[in-house]
Design a protein that fits this description.
The complex is a heterodimer of chains A (369) and B (214).
Chain A: E1 4-13, E2 16-26, E3 31-35, H1 42-49, E4 57-62, E5 65-66, H2 73-76, E6 79-82, H3 93-103, H4 108-121, H5 137-149, E7 155-159, H6 167-183, E8 187-192, H7 195-201, E9 204-209, E10 212-217, H8 219-224, H9 229-234, E11 239-249, E12 252-256, E13 261-265, E14 273-278, E15 284-286, E16 298-310, E17 313-319, E18 323-329, H10 330-336, E19 343-348, E20 354-357
Parallel strand pairs in A: 3-8, 3-9, 6-7, 7-8
Antiparallel strand pairs in A: 1-2, 1-4, 4-5, 9-10, 11-12, 11-14, 12-13, 14-20, 15-19, 16-17, 16-19, 17-18
Helix pairs in contact in A: 3-4, 3-5, 4-5
Chain B: H1 2-36, H2 42-52, H3 57-68, H4 83-108, H5 111-119, H6 124-134, H7 136-151, H8 155-161, H9 171-180, H10 184-213
Classes of the chains: A alpha+beta (369), B mainly alpha (214).
Chain lengths: 369, 214
């Protein structure tokens, strides 16, 4: 049974829907990452999940039981949350970590032992007596996380817990936090706007767009088989091309992309409008000769129209009937002498072309990568 | 003369001390409630509180006098010209100040702090108590502002207390009387004491605030 379930839940603000979730289940022990741009409804989702905000309609279930509003304190106390800002209280670090135990009436000695345990776990035992106001950003966030964990919640909610930290501190704390969540077998909803973070930590990823959950699945599903053009754009699919299925043969289809025909693995019927999603790193690129030695089914010739190098990789745009983006290493780009106007060949495996049903014709305008 | 002086100072501190305690007890919860909740009519109440913060003490004295006078609605209590009447008048003056400063303090706290406190398992009462603790520096300011305004107030206590020697004479009314009678030395002495009391109390409050901030 799921720990938490949302069914047709909607939250409105000023007459406008800011959350509209058809269905969401969080199974025990799962680390669910929720990603999406600012204003997608991620924080609202957390408030509802925390049973602190009553939806205007829909049902929230906790351990399968429908939650009555206002949610009973005992149920609320099974859940704890930490925010982007530590929001520490006046007093010492130990006082802060003890707060959740205090409000639950935990005996002093037991609370003291638990606080010590949590401070140890977060690596801030030496800061126990320090005033919260004197901590660095990373230390304060560790204290805030220890405070959220102290009461031993069944469900931990994290609202951009690392977003205000510097990169090295963030990376380190991320690893430790994931280890703690795993080690304690916590169920966790981790909100982030950083999709790399989401894919790095999660068992499941939910992508939110304008209050809705556009897709919820394993990181691989969301990454390789985005369900909507928005998700495709959000996970950096790069090439999202509108077309129509021209032929189908035992799971292998031919897609007509207006200017290019590609083969893809799909069960969609002939005649359906689709969006073909191809990640730029799945596009192989070369000069001279052909990719005859490759097993790739899709081979085409084209001419480079743009080359953008960023860090270790180079993004190459090639006109081959349609415009396709390919990602190559900086070294290959240099060795191949890639620049605008150069003739190249491209190849893409049929399994690397993800087809997205496009009944509404969403893809007409294309999707920004 | 000295025993009289001590008595006058003692009564001043007692009347204003009791009045500020009552004002805090009645004012802080109201300030927190107004600061945290949104409901129809809230704007009107906040406007009334803000107006109350600037009530002319003489008008307060007049109203309390009329209410407590023999023919007034609470005339039966026979409180007029007693320290109790002075406490009532001072509460009417200090209460809006306490509510107003508390309201501002609670609204000044980070909105998300409330969510954070609730998310750590606090009940509604525990939430309010924690917010009071978080806003305590501002509450000290409310205390100082309220006490400062009533210990030095003269019009209202004169009207409802009557400046009766040995019964309702406080520092401010004594200063007025002694000055009128030409006892300038006594008036100045009382003035200095009043200033010192005000200074001492503010020094104490400042210390508390600064320690809390460190």
């Amino acid at each position: 049974m799921s720990l938490l379930a949302l069914e047709r839940v909607a939250v409105e603000a000023g007459g406008r829907a800011i959350l509209d979730v058809e269905h969401l289940q969080v199974q025990p022990g799962v680390l669910l990452a929720v990603v999406g741009p600012t204003g997608a409804g991620k924080s609202t989702l957390l408030r509802v999940a925390h049973l602190l905000e009553r939806p205007v309609r829909g049902t929230v279930r906790w351990h399968g039981e429908v939650v009555a509003w206002p949610a009973p304190l005992a149920t609320r106390r099974c859940i704890a949350m930490a925010f982007q800002d530590p929001l520490l209280f006046a007093g010492t670090v130990a006082d802060n970590v003890a707060f959740g135990l205090e409000v639950r009436g935990t005996r002093r000695a037991a609370a003291g032992a638990r606080v010590a345990e949590l401070l140890e776990l977060l690596g801030i035992a030496h800061l126990a007596g320090r005033r919260a106001a004197t901590l660095s950003g990373g230390e304060a966030q560790r204290a805030a996380l220890a405070r959220a964990l102290a009461s031993g919640p069944e469900l931990l909610l994290l609202d951009e817990p690392l977003a205000s930290l510097d990169a090295p501190v963030r990376e380190r704390l991320r690893g430790e936090l994931v280890a703690i969540v795993r080690g304690q077998r916590l169920t966790c909803i981790w909100v982030t706007h950083d999709q790399e973070e989401a894919f790095a930590v999660a068992d499941r990823v939910a992508v939110m767009d304008a209050g809705r959950i556009a897709q919820c699945g394993t990181p691989e599903e969301v990454f390789f088989r985005p369900a909507t053009p928005f998700v495709a754009g959000f996970v950096g699919t790069g090439n999202v091309l509108p077309g129509r299925i021209a032929a189908s043969d035992g799971g292998l289809v031919t897609v007509d992309l207006v200017g290019l025909r590609l083969q893809a693995v799909s069960e969609l019927p002939v005649g359906d409008r689709v969006l073909a999603c191809i990640r730029p790193e799945e596009v192989t690129l070369g000069r001279d000769g052909g990719p005859d030695h490759l097993s790739a089914r899709n081979r085409m010739n084209g001419r480079v129209t743009a080359v953008v190098t960023r860090g270790a990789t180079t993004r190459v745009e090639v006109a081959c009937g349609v415009r396709l983006q390919a990602l190559v290493t900086r070294r290959s780009a240099a060795e191949l002498g890639l620049e605008a106007g150069v003739a190249v060949w491209l190849s893409v495996k049929a399994t690397a072309v993800h087809l997205l049903a496009d009944a509404e014709g969403n893809g007409r305008a294309g999707v920004e990568a | 003369m000295l025993p009289d002086l001590v008595e006058v100072i003692g009564l001043s501190l007692a009347v204003s001390g009791v009045a500020i305690v009552i004002s805090m007890v009645l004012g802080v919860p109201v300030g927190i409630f107004l600061g945290l909740n949104r409901f129809p009519g809230r704007q009107l109440l906040v406007t009334l509180v803000n107006t109350g913060m600037g009530l002319p003490p003489v008008v307060v004295g007049l109203v309390v006098f009329l209410v407590l006078a023999r023919s007034g609605p609470l005339g039966g209590l026979d409180l007029l010209y007693t320290p109790s009447a002075m406490v009532v008048a001072q509460v009417v003056i200090a209460w809006p100040l306490v509510v107003g400063v508390t309201l501002a303090a609670v609204q000044g706290l980070d909105e998300r702090l409330r969510l954070q406190i609730l998310s750590l398992g606090a009940s509604r009462v525990q939430l309010y108590w924690k917010l009071v603790q978080e806003a305590r520096l501002s509450l000290v300011a409310a205390l100082a502002a309220g006490f400062g305004s009533i210990i030095s107030e003269v019009g209202a206590v004169m009207m409802v207390g009557g400046n009766i020697k040995g019964q309702t004479r406080v520092m401010t009314t004594a200063i007025v009387l002694e000055t009128r009678q030409g006892n300038f030395r006594l008036a100045v002495a009382l003035g200095v004491v009043l200033l010192l009391v005000a200074l001492g109390i503010n020094w104490l409050f400042t210390r508390v605030q600064q320690r809390g901030r460190a």
